[in-house]
Amino acid sequence: MRIANHHVSRITAFLLLVEFAVAVAAVYLGAVIRFFDKHSLYLPQSDKFLLSALAFAASIIFSMSALGMYQINYREGLRNTFLRLMPSFALGFGIITLVFYLLPELYFGRGILGLVMIFAAIMILAARGLIFKFSEVGLLKSRILFLGSGALAKECRELAMNNIAYHQYDVVGFVPLAGEECKVPESALIPQTENLALLAQRLNVGEIVVSVQNRRGGQFPLQELLDCKLVGVKVIDAAAFIEREACQIRVESLQPGWLVFGDGFNQSFLRKFGKQSFDLIVSALIFAITLPIMLATALLIFIEDQGPIFYKQERVGKNGRTYMVLKFRSMGSDAEKSGKPQWATNNDPRVTRIGKIIRKLRIDELPQIINVLKGEMSFVGPRPERPFFVDQLCKEVPFYNMRHSIKPGITGMAQVRYAYGASVEDSVQKLQYDLYYVKNNSLFLDALILIETVQVVLLGKGAR
């Protein structure tokens, strides 16, 4: 399903709603058990208690989302799910405790809270256990057929077979076209001896992925694909399939016409106004929350080597305009004494002791909030790059300049889905996430990226 242009697994959305309801129910169950009386049944009915239950459920769901619990892996089993659930509940406990401190009228007591945490964990594990059981018997699988057997079909097959986080697919096979080099197992080929629509119905196929690079000439069965749609079989382009499953737009197989005539790239006044408001509110809030951390960081940087606290560097922003990005200095003052820009590396010797910590926790990025407040950046968007590397990448990577059609961000799709970019190859991978964001950006997607950023910061993912 699509929410504000972003592809969301129906199973993930359903599980989130179920677990939110389960968390609310756990609060009421905890209250009933805590005040159980054999002569009468205690049922809390006040609006305040309902708000308390909703606050608890929101805290738990946010914590689970932030620590990646909705990046579902059907093969991990209940034991690993339980081990992943415990840190989420610990974070959730901290958040709900803060909520009770700020809004004491919502507090429902330690006795109830202890029972609620236990009941919520058990019920959420049970809900996930049912999902895993359904997946084992194949009830959640979708039967798909690929039209084509070349390199693009191979890439789509690997994505369908390895994507255990959101969908499970039963790959029926591949219908080859004449003149195309076979890149998939020959055992998976299905010779087309009948109309494609009849073949799809006979094989009980729900979706056909058109994974053919060259669609010119009389060999491409356009009329048969139309027949498939008319009998209820979904037909999807390989680029759209990759976009849906990987949240990427693959540059090597991308056709400009698909970008021109497809959905997305919303740059309306309403979208711009909403994003600017979102940036200002989030930036001001995070600045207020992290101000003590930033003051402590500035002091530690100065104590370590008495050098400059902040580091300014020219970056490329919207429409190719340059600006000076502001960061906490995490490298020595002579990090680029040769005068030539260079990629960061693992265990980079230029990084200071304090720098290693603040880069791991992404604290060095916090001063960029000032760039956001000045209107040079957004809070969420493609990460800005230096002009030296932009000139290089625009020559080597197709469509690279498209990422400059919107403001760069402190965090972004590539930052939460891919490791630190330190080469042209890494930049291509990150660009594919950035193109997805540029095409499908919305306040909903911005909120999801911010939630995933919490996981990146807490677990130190991708830092160098």
How would you describe this protein?
With 464 residues, the chain is of the alpha/beta class. It folds into three domains: 2-136, no CATH class; 141-246, NAD(P)-binding Rossmann-like Domain (Rossmann fold); 269-333 and 345-459, no CATH class. Helices cover 52% and strands 10% of the residues. The chain has 16 helices and ten strands. The protein has helices at 10-34, 47-66, 77-102, 110-136, 151-162, 196-202, 222-230, 238-246, 256-261, 269-305, 353-360, 368-373, 387-396, 413-417, 424-440, 443-459; strands at 2-3, 6-7, 141-147, 168-175, 207-210, 234-237, 310-316, 322-328, 378-380, 409-411. A four-stranded parallel sheet has the order 4-3-5-6, sandwiched between helices. Strands 1-2 form a two-stranded antiparallel sheet. Strands 7-8 form a two-stranded antiparallel sheet. Strand 7 and strand 8 form a beta hairpin. Helix 1 packs antiparallel against helix 4. It is globular and about 70 Å long. It starts with a strand and ends in a 5-residue tail after the last helix. 32% of the residues are buried. The mean pLDDT is 85.
Keywords:
16 helices; two-stranded antiparallel sheet; 10% strand; 10 strands; 464 residues; Rossmann fold; alpha/beta; four-stranded parallel β-sheet
